[in-house]
Amino acid sequence: MELGVQYFRTLARYNAWANIRLYDACAQLSDTDRRRDRKAFFGSIHGTLNHLLAGDRIWMGRIQHREHGVTRLDEILFDDFEELRTARTAEDRGILTYADGLAAEDMLTILEYQSFTAGVGKTPLPLILGHMFNHQTHHRGQAHAMLSQTGMTPPSLDLLFYLREMEDAASTA
Predict the structure, then answer these.
(1) Helix, coil or strand: residue 55
(2) pLDDT in tens, 4-28
(3) Does the residue 53 lie in any domain?
(4) Is residue 114 part of a domain?
(5) Rounded to an integer, what distance in angstroms lies between the CA atom of residue 100 and that of residue 24?
(6) Which of 3, 14, 75, 129 is most buried per CB count within 10 Å?
């Protein structure tokens, strides 16, 4: 598999950046608006944000061979938004630390894990990492759409906006 570690380091940084922007926008809403059922897969913005954290905890637990503590994909890990935001920030730091420690030989790893619904899986690590970051993007997109339903203009979360912002920051440093 020819996906290099730098690619996943970039995705980890982009992921953290996009989550900060998303949470900043969500913080402008009332708790009632964040919890309103918007007919999305996980119901509300709050439910979707909890699912995103649950998904990352599951995959990082599997990748790092440690207990993740999540019992359901729709589990509300944190009922309080600020506690959820703090946990999201901590999870993103952990993902960044993991990505920064990746080595080329890790890209040859086949991860064996227990799925919630499909039994035992065996998948190359680069595909797992790709899935994890794609999963984040997918559900952030759902949260983004739900933010639009509130009348708020959601922030731009595209990878290219992140890359341009990083280029601008590097050129002014």
Answers:
(1) helix
(2) 899 999 999 999 999 999 999 999 9
(3) yes
(4) yes
(5) 25
(6) 129
Q: 173 lies in a domain?
A: no
Q: Which amino acid is at 35?
A: R
Backbone torsions φ then ψ of 70, nearest 5 degrees: -90, 135
Closest CA relative to residue 33, chosen from 142, 147, 156:
147
> Could you tell me the residue range of the domain that residue 100 belongs to?
5-167
Euclidean distance between CA atoms 43 and 35, whole angstroms: 8
Q: What is the pLDDT of residues 58-70, one digit of tens each?
A: 999 999 999 999 9
CATH number at residue 71: 1.20.120.450
**Separation in Å, CA 31 to CA 27, 35, 59, 80:** 9, 6, 28, 9
Residue 107 has pLDDT above 70, yes or no: yes
Residue 120 φ/ψ, nearest 5 degrees: -85, 135
Q: Which residue has the tokens 């993902």?
A: 95
Structure tokens at 6: 């730098």
Q: Are 33 and 150 in contact (CB under 8 A)?
A: yes
Could you tell me the two tokens for 28?
């402008």
Cα–Cα distance measured from residue 68 to residue 12, given in angstroms and rounded to the nearest whole number: 19
Please give the C-alpha separations between residue 75 and each of 23, 42, 132, 150, 161, in angstroms, as whole numbers: 19, 10, 18, 24, 31
What Å distances lie between residue 152 and 2, 41, 157, CA to CA? Answer: 40, 21, 15
Q: Which two tokens stand for residue 145?
A: 């759409």
* 52 inside domain: yes
Residue 95 contacts residue 81 (beta carbons within 8 Å): no
